[in-house]
């Protein structure tokens, strides 16, 4: 038989780990939000020239982190579901093989 072997528990754990990365993205966003430079710090020249670019970049960065967190959560859930599906298939296959042995009168 082929060399591929799925390890359902490892796949499920991987999904949990990937979902956990969403928390890191949220933490980075929280830190970036807390580190915002207030308008008054930019002075008149900064307000007139670079502050709007800074705000736009910060807003896009925060949106990106939100999207990362959502994507990581979704990917983790999907990977975990895959591991659980493998576990279910393994259980069902074991039951079918057991039934075949019983039907054939073979004891192991």
Automatic annotation (TrEMBL):
It comes from the Bacteria. Gene3D superfamilies: ESAT-6-like (1.10.287.1060). It comes from Saccharopolyspora hordei. InterPro entries: ESAT-6-like_sf. This is Uncharacterized protein YukE.
């Amino acid at each position: 038989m082929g060399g591929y072997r799925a390890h359902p528990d490892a796949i499920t754990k991987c999904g949990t780990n990937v979902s956990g990365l969403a928390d890191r993205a949220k933490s980075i966003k929280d830190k970036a939000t807390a580190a915002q430079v207030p308008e008054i710090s930019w002075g008149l020249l900064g307000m007139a020239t670079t502050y709007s670019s800074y705000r736009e970049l910060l807003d896009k960065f925060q949106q990106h982190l939100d999207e990362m967190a959502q994507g990581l959560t979704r990917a983790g859930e999907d990977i975990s579901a895959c591991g659980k599906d493998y576990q279910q298939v393994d259980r069902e296959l074991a039951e079918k093989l057991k039934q075949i042995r019983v039907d054939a009168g073979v004891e192991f």
